[in-house]
Amino acid sequence: MSQYTNIIVIADQIQGDLRPVTMELLGAASELAEKLGVKTHAIVMGSQISHIPEVLIHNGADEVYVVDQPELKEYSTLTYRRAAITVIESLPKPPHIILCGATTLGRDLAPRIAAYFETGLTADCTELDIGDYVHKGKADPNKTGTFNNCLYAIRPSFGESLKARILGPWKNPQMATARTGAMIPFKTDTTRTGKITPMTVKFEDSDFRLKVIETVREVSSDLDLLKAKVIVSGGFGLGGPEGFEVVRDLASAFSESAVGSSRKAVDSGWIPYSHQVGQTGKTVRPRLYIALGISGAIQHRVGMSNSAMILAVNKDESAPIFQFAHYGIVGDLFEIAPLLKEQFKQAVPA
Amino acid sequence: MSDGLRMAVLIKQVPDTSSATGVNPDGTVDRARAKKMINPFDKFALQKAIEVRNARGGEIFVISMGPPPAIAVLHEALEYGADKGYLLGDRRLAASDTLATAYALYKAVLYLKDIDIIFTGLQTTDGDTAQTGPQIAERMGVPQISYCETMEIEGKTVKATRIIDGGVQRLEVEMPVLITVANSAVKLEHKRFANVYKTKQALRDKDALADKIFTVDLDEVEADATRVGLVGSPTVVGKTWKIGEKGGSCKVFKGAAPKHEVELLVDEISKDERGVMEFVL
User: Fold this and answer.
1) Dihedral angle at the C-alpha atoms of A306, A20, A278, B24, nearest 10 degrees?
2) Inter-CA distances, B167 with A208, A215, A242, A274, B274, Å
3) Residues B228, B265: one domain?
4) Are residues B83 and B178 in the same domain?
5) Domain range holding B254?
6) Do A52 and A18 meet the contact criterion of CB atoms below 8 Å apart?
7) Record: contact B268-A114, CB cut-off 8 A
8) How is domain A7-208 classified at the CATH fold level?
9) Which helix (H) or strand (E) holds B61?
10) Cα–Cα distance for residue pair A292/A311, rounded to 1 Å
11) Which residues of A touch B171 (CB under 8 A)?
12) Cβ within 8 Å, pair B139-A163
């Protein structure tokens, strides 16, 4: 048996559907667990979710703690906090690592869990690993020492083109969140078996101070950016909301396509936030990403640089996007985009 | 006003990475030389608090944690219309991570006593974790509404909507509450000339700001110094490295007639082994 305790993934489900980030975290967690010689556990919370534990096991979990109670039908900070903390505290020893998606749920919940356990939390990691760490602190001599098999939580430092490795080996659980699209999911195996442990949580009155009156989900006609194989994105170079006509038109030339945007275009009110790719938007990894009039600042780059192929159209040859795109064309996007559509169609036999 | 709300707005001074000053050619920031600004996300929080106060009455206390020059963001907050500014400044705070920062700010909010609403921005542009707000709420034992887009106040009840992935949630909560304000929640207004003028005037005469801007240290807010700074932070930055530039690998088409360039480009892409042509309709 390993000297380390297990890894826990907090699953993110909406109305019985697991979010992609959960599968990705299970993939990452399984790799970390193998290095540590421990198991991957998952916590799932909700109401009428009896079908979910099996899916989690097929996707890499060895044991699933299930809190299936009507109070958890919709996410609310305080009820989910209570449920997660109850499960974690029921374990004989604190888990070595806890991972959570950097979704609106994870970003709301994980900081509270970390603060409750007085432990470290690294946000929006793009890579996770296990390794050793030597701390030589003069200012904090109590922390000095050599630590084996700590969580390496690796994240970009925005506004600077740096990556940073964050460590917190002094206290378990070591916690991190990761964004959708950043990690590779576990390869689904429907023959995998595991243990399912139902848990009951006793809520306190104060957990219901925050009342969820209603949860409204958009029925979006746009294909989800996270699932699209081809994304055509527009930036500030579009000049206005009407510029997105060109983006949509080019996207219509591809199957499984979606329209994306840079933050500047969203902040200018040209297109809804749900289309935003980048640091404060979505992280995507399509097969083809076409960037029209997007300069490629680090904030955008971190959301799309994992795309298999990046094609950039920009009139400014010195735009940073040409440093990491695979193909680029320098010119007026309003002229180039329709030509691209025509040429792509011509290149494929009808 | 006795029935007015007591609101705290937490703001941070961050390096202005859009400015050339202090940004090294390799994209790293020289924090000492960099131009400083109020964290852009915090302006939405401040604006929201001002809207609430103007509609409902009350007082806005702005808190910032940072070294002495960070007092500039408090001056700026007064120019926007805040009532009072508190700088939580103490050498022992240096190198605090989010958990330690949340502890210190929580103590500063308690110091102000009986705060009804704590407003924060969604995140900062330098730390960029979006964790500090919820962690302060956890320490205070109060609910939070993160990604808050709209809010109405009736008595001490806040009715709000928050953005969630793929939709919105309508929530109701009794104060005290912490709210992280989405950028889409307010339209930023310019500083009011009268406030700018008053603050500028006051800055010339230090005493005039004595009842508006305060500097407090850990002892004054009764914070435990072992829970902040390097000593009180559960995380450290172990190592940083530059994000690998794939410079030069981009095949750029330019110069000739656009139609010709596009033909060459698509021809090249159609031969690329990454295989994207299967998606062309």
Assistant:
1) -60
2) 22, 7, 25, 9, 34
3) no
4) yes
5) 246-281
6) yes
7) no
8) Rossmann fold (3.40.50)
9) strand B58-65
10) 9
11) 76, 210-213
12) no
CATH 3.40.50.1220, applies to A230-347: yes
pLDDT tens for chain A, 350 residues long, are 678 999 999 999 988 889 889 999 999 999 999 999 999 999 999 999 999 999 999 999 999 999 999 999 999 999 999 999 999 999 988 999 999 999 889 999 999 999 999 999 999 998 999 999 999 877 788 899 999 999 999 998 766 667 899 999 999 999 999 988 788 899 999 999 999 999 999 999 999 999 999 998 876 545 578 888 999 999 999 999 999 999 999 999 999 899 999 998 988 889 988 899 987 788 888 999 999 999 998 889 888 988 889 999 999 999 999 988 999 999 999 999 999 999 999 988 76
Q: Say if CB A77 and CB B138 are below 8 A apart.
A: no
Distance separating alpha carbons of residues B15 and A29, to the nearest angstrom: 35
Residue B140 distance to chain A (closest CA, Å): 11
**Domain residue spans in chain A?**
7-208, 230-347
The reply to whether residue B163 touches residue A104, judged by beta carbons under 8 angstroms, is yes
Residues B257 and B190 in one domain: no
Other CB atoms within a 10 A radius of the CB of residue A77 amount to 25
On whether both B166 and B279 belong to a single domain, the answer is: no
Contact A123 B130 (CB under 8 A): yes
The H or E element that residue B213 is part of is: strand B213-216
> Rounded CA gap, A200 and A83, in Å?
8
